Amino acid sequence: MKYILVSGGVISGIGKGVIASSIGTLLKTYGIRVTAIKIDPYLNIDAGTFSPYEHGEVFVLDDGGEVDLDLGNYERFMQVKLNRDNNITTGKIYQHVISRERKGDYLGKTVQVVPHITDSIMEWVEKVAQIPVDDSSETPEVCIIELGGTIGDIEGMPFVEAFRQFQFRVNNSNFCTILVSLVPQPSENGEQKTKPTQHSVQVLRGKGLSPDLIMCRSKHALVKSARDKVSNFCHVAPEQVIGVQDVSSIYRVPSLLEQQNVPQYLFKRLDIKCPRRPTNLFRQWRILADKNDRVHEKCKIAMVGKYVKLQDAYASVIKALEHAALAINRKLELLFVEAEHLQDDFRKTQPLEYHQAWKQLVQAEGVLVPGGFGVRGVEGKVLATKWARENKIPFLGVCLGLQVCVIEFARNVLGMHGANSTEMDKDTQHPVVIEMPEHNPGDMGGTMRLGKRRTIFKTEDSILRKLYKPKGNYVDERHRHRYEVNPEYTQMFEEQGMLFVGQDEEGVRMEIAELKDHPFFVAVQFHPEFLSRPLQPSAPYLGLLLASSKKLISFLEKGGNLSPSSISSDDDLN
């Protein structure tokens, strides 16, 4: 097993996750099996109880693991399926060690950071690195490990010490270190400054790790003088200094690293026999990046959410929309609409925000209501859903979006005044959305309906079934919810045209709702964005983009295949 440690210097949030993912993608283009581990030094057990404003979205894995959003990047880029143990936190490590101490596993010895915490980290990495993560079911050959935060952070010290020891444990030829560091360019003189990177390298070396590659993040391409300075003062060869400037899209990063011979260096450094490249995967990435730059015709989608101030809160949703837009040769124009601003009370208290939110909504060619928790903004989502339904605007609801659809339909079509979810109103007379019976209201972490679950299609006359094109009568998607549609009301909904075309295996939980006599009005209880891939867009998001671009009818009539002939405009049929 070969290990690549990716750490960061100067500041966090400069793209370690994208760089780690891009390295994994490049290795996969050479036919090498790759896995990935993300280390988050916080004390939380997992990301499940975080506010979206803390670390962005909570990404959900097949096994129900609630993890850092960087694992979403790994899965999308490397086309792998990870598990909850691929995300290591300080909380998990300490919980594991303390649990062992309580069982007497340490035979009465004093439990300390060194060796007990550091040994636990090393054992965890070695164990997880062996787990197959792709369809081959074979053991990975390379494990890419991203250490969150920046070198020098006090909470990351045990992990840095663990990897100082780890490089000798696995042999130096099986372990290499990459430092991702910022090279700022102050506007006053326009010169790229390397001093922060030099200090980061000094700190890393002081902890016992020496970088094999220094990835210099900068606004513009790294100039030769800056490269030479980093090489000279950080004691590495010029070819070990890699420029990673801002590019038109993250799909360009693998090519950027390839141009600077990063794979060839890693093969030599880790003593990997350089295989012949299976060019098709790399070619597909190049085509994808070129298409992203070339496509100019826009499609406007309004995303009505409650966390829109931080785009990372909807990272996978945004990526899924981008994947779908590129697949049909459209440039996504995403309008972030604060759900709360659509509500009537805002018209009186903040009229400017109210009118701006509605202006964005009515300009959109399609509407998306994503997931969320809590009462804030729900009434605004209900109003957006009503507007899309009544005006025949393509609509997709995800998780809470499905529940909002049900609430809106119950109130305005079925005449159930005050219909609501028991999450928002425990005393509602019409509880059309209820808490799942098995939900544990005690501990918050890991108590939802999580992970990959099967949805059974109840009819062949379903837009989503035609888009998914499943081999059987089912699809498997990832879930994260505590509330569900109340099955006691479903017959009334279906009698009035809201059809629950997808249900769980027991036929109790409503998974997919579609509205009759509407161009595209679909809502799902699961989170299809978690399985969207750049080269394989998610069916619900693809349907929204097709309908919003007036391509859906033509696409379905031509067999539902992503080819230029199948994505012509519906207007061409008239």
Strand arrangement across the biggest beta sheet: 11-10-12-13-21-20-19-16-17
Rg over alpha carbons:
25 Å
Structural class: alpha/beta
- What average pLDDT do the residues reach? 91
User: Strand share of the residues?
Assistant: 15-25%
Reported for the largest beta sheet, the result is: 9 strands, mixed
Gap between N and C termini:
59 Å
Helicity level, as a percent range? 25-40%
Count the beta strands.
21
Shape: globular
Number of helices: 20
Low-confidence stretches: none
In short:
The chain is built from 20 helices and 21 strands.
Topology of helices and strands:
Blueprint: E1 2-9, H1 16-29, E2 34-40, H2 52-55, E3 59-60, E4 66-67, H3 70-78, E5 87-89, H4 90-103, H5 113-129, E6 142-147, H6 157-169, E7 175-182, H7 195-206, E8 213-218, H8 224-234, E9 241-245, H9 253-259, H10 262-269, H11 279-294, E10 298-305, H12 315-327, E11 331-338, H13 344-349, H14 351-363, E12 366-369, H15 378-390, E13 395-398, H16 400-412, E14 420-421, E15 431-435, E16 449-457, H17 463-468, E17 474-481, E18 483-485, H18 490-495, E19 498-503, E20 510-515, E21 521-524, H19 539-548, H20 552-557
Parallel strand pairs: 1-6, 1-7, 2-5, 2-6, 7-8, 8-9, 10-11, 10-12, 12-13, 13-21, 14-15
Antiparallel strand pairs: 3-4, 15-18, 16-17, 16-19, 19-20, 20-21
Helix pairs in contact: 1-3, 1-9, 1-11, 4-5, 5-6, 12-19, 15-16
